[in-house]
Amino acid sequence: MSGGVDSSVAAALLARDGFDVVGVTFNQWPADLMARATGNGCCTPDTIDDARRVCFILGVPHYVIDYRREFETAVIDPWVKAYLNGQTPNPCVMCNRTVRFGSFLTKADELGADFIATGHYARVETDETSGRMRLRTAKDPSKDQSYVLHVLGQRQLARTLFPLGALTKPEVRRLAADFGLPVALKADSQEICFVPDNDHAVYVRGHGSTGAGDIVDTAGHVLGHHDGLEAVTPGQRRGLNLGGGSARRYVVELDPTANRVIVGSRDDSRARQIEVRDVNWIDDAPPSAPCRVGVRTRYRMPLEDATLLTTPRGVTLEFGQPTWAPAPGQSAVFYDGDEVLGGGAIAAVTSR
Length: 352
Hints:
With 352 residues, the protein is α+β, with helices and mostly antiparallel strands. The chain folds into three domains: 5-178, HUPs (Rossmann fold); 209-265, Roll (SH3 type barrels); 270-351, Elongation Factor Tu (Ef-tu), domain 3 (Beta Barrel). It has eight helices and 16 strands. The strands form four sheets. A six-stranded antiparallel beta barrel has the order 11-14-13-12-15-16. Helix 1 (5-16) crosses helix 7. The longest helix is centred in the first third of the chain and has 21 residues, at 91-111. The termini are far apart.
């Protein structure tokens, strides 16, 4: 329970339906971050108090579990390292893989719990024929979080409940008011929970920087200079400080070896083919032949049509129409209609 409206309503629905509910909040922020917390992220002192108040109203116990070491080791440190290697990582994916559905599931076993539950907007169903678990998108497409859940497998899905999967956000807020929860009108948390000011570059620079380097066009001509690759991502247009000109320039690629930012036209930033590694398959096995899938290359991006081909190193995706600015380090997630097949980390653009 993060102290927000979603996890609070998830707990209330389960309690209403007869589950023996225990509210758990993670203490996962290092001390230096807690001192800068704004109250709008998850698991800050204020939000922990909100979760505790909700549990008191629901009449269920509330516990805080110390995951600071796990979170820093499994999420923050590799997230910083990825940015310093010219990548654009997704910390929610890292957290779901290691802490939220890893360490926490182990703790649930220790507590003798049958299930863990979260306020994510997604659905889990059991296939009546095979008995396998299926991960599906939420009813509310504007809140769907299946993208960041693609790292889950059969074991996690069989033990996980998503009570909000069939609800819209307005319905969740109305339920919170009906239950008398004090968080009914609370604003949604910010994008990166452990970056209180939501300025990832400033946070990364507290741990290191690639240093200044050149900004070049696709022909290699120097156009300007950047202050560090950690502040730049493929597809970016603003903040490059390249001066005026008739043509807009977008970040096409980051070159960590030469510490360069390569810019070009909007079309230059598109890709026809990408390579994906560290792939997780929800059903434990990849498709047996090349197949057509819907692909999301960033959180909230619309699905795009592509051909998926498995390779010894992972997956190659060939898009029907060039996809916009895929960023190494981000996740590419594969869908069959509303079902999540799996996903992995974008390793490289192999054709533009």
